[in-house]
Write a structure and sequence with these properties.
By secondary structure, this protein is an alpha/beta fold. The protein has eleven helices and 13 strands. Helix 1 crosses helix 2 and helix 8 packs across helix 9. It is globular and about 55 Å long. It binds acetyl coenzyme *A. The site of acetyl coenzyme *A has 23 residues, from helix 2, helix 6 and helix 8. One of its GO terms (biological process) is fatty acid biosynthetic process.
Length: 337
């Protein structure tokens, strides 16, 4: 079927915000039994940002959201989606307050939790609303303060995660214009839910009648199976989305993977037989920022000229759940602020 009457979601604005406090590997090594050398060689991370007292996910989300709206040239949207696993409160969701603080009181707003795959899931959700005609413009924010759920004694997770936010504006357009989001591939595997988990704080723990184990309020991760799943799931999802888009792997100018570990990204490049140079990277400066990772790496690469208008870009992400997701787009001209 010719797609002349089909609506597509088109990327028309992008913005990011990082809390100002930098925590270097050397800073971590002063508090814990770790070293700059270990963290750099095992993960590629040199530093990450951490919120200061008084900040929360909504603060980061509002800053990134305001920049994305400005970049899009209009502050009018009819839906706000905040992808986050670290909402300000268990109830209510963070998006209504974020929308209110952006001057969007009354606009539909909700949170979406798909952990590190959250931003791609949120893009797919927003694109679905636009395709169905239930929204014309959507603000999609990925924001997390994952350092707030880390165990202060766990050197492995403290080394990996950082706080941040990134946002995009999607508008209704046509599938053939630059910025149009292509097909999506989304997937999940709940049989491995316990590989990355915050055991307490939810209904299971509260309903158990058991006393709270204080360690269970923190995130825990079984690193090696997560590493292997990350490589396999992102590689397979990339192949599936390329197939749906009718692109060959060599048609892709830039790959933007979830930034969790530079070695995971190298392994995906090897699996796909693509030169490493086509993979954009900012994990060295921000670590794993969970739902913020994809918009942060896209915005950083665009600002650095590493992603240019006209580039064919493949986005792929993976995280707790397990969950993963991919999409493609041709990079549009954007106001990068
Ligand atoms: N500093 C020094 N040593 C450390 C540190 C540290 N920060 N962390 C772990 N080690 C030690 C371990 O204790 C272990 O010591 P041992 O051999 O004496 O037992 C040794 O280093 C090797 O540990 P491994 O776990 O085998 O190290 P590995 O090379 O697998 O790297 C890592 C660990 C970085 C966590 C890796 O497994 C990884 O990146 N996993 C994927 C994480 C990920 O992608 N998460 C993304 C999803 S997150 C989400 O969705 C919320």
């Amino acid at each position: 079927m010719a797609g002349h009457h089909r609506r597509a979601a088109v990327l028309c604005g992008i913005g990011t915000w990082l809390p100002p406090r930098v925590v270097t590997n050397a800073d971590l090594a002063r508090q814990l039994d770790t070293s700059d050398e270990w963290i750099r060689t095992r993960t590629g991370i040199r530093e990450r940002r951490v919120i200061d007292r008084g900040m929360s996910t909504s603060v980061l989300a509002v800053e990134a959201g305001a920049r994305a709206l400005k970049s899009s040239g209009s502050s009018e949207v009819d839906l706000v989606v905040v992808a986050t696993t670290t909402p300000d409160h268990p109830c209510p969701s963070t998006a209504p307050e974020v929308a209110h603080r952006l001057g969007l009181t009354g606009v539909a707003a909700f949170d979406l939790n798909a952990v590190c795959a959250g931003f791609v899931y949120a893009l797919a959700t927003a694109a679905g609303h636009i395709a169905a005609g239930s929204a014309e413009r959507v603000l999609v924010i990925g924001a997390d303060t994952f350092t707030t759920v880390l165990n202060p004694l766990d050197r492995t997770t403290l080394a990996i995660f950082g706080d941040g936010a990134g946002a995009v504006v999607l508008r209704a357009g046509t599938p053939d214009e630059p910025g149009a989001l292509g097909p999506f591939d989304l997937g999940a595997d709940g049989s491995n839910a316990d590989l990355l988990i915050v055991p307490a704080g939810g209904s299971e723990q509260r309903g158990s009648g058991e006393p709270l184990d204080p360690a269970d309020v923190h995130f825990r991760m079984d690193g090696q199976p997560v590493f292997r799943n990350a490589v396999t799931r992102m590689s397979e999802s990339a192949v599936k989305v390329l197939d749906r888009a009718g692109w060959r792997v060599e048609d892709v100018d830039r790959f933007a993977c979830h930034q969790a570990n530079a070695r995971i990204i190298s392994a995906v490049a090897r699996d796909l037989a693509v030169p490493q140079e086509r993979f954009v990277l900012n994990v060295d400066r921000v670590g794993n920022t969970v739902a913020a990772s994809i918009p942060l790496v896209l915005a950083d690469a665009a600002a650095a000229g590493d992603i240019e208008p006209g580039h064919r870009v493949l986005v792929t992400s993976f995280g707790a759940g397990l969950g993963w997701g991919s999409t493609v787009l041709t990079w549009p001209e954007l106001d990068l602020g």
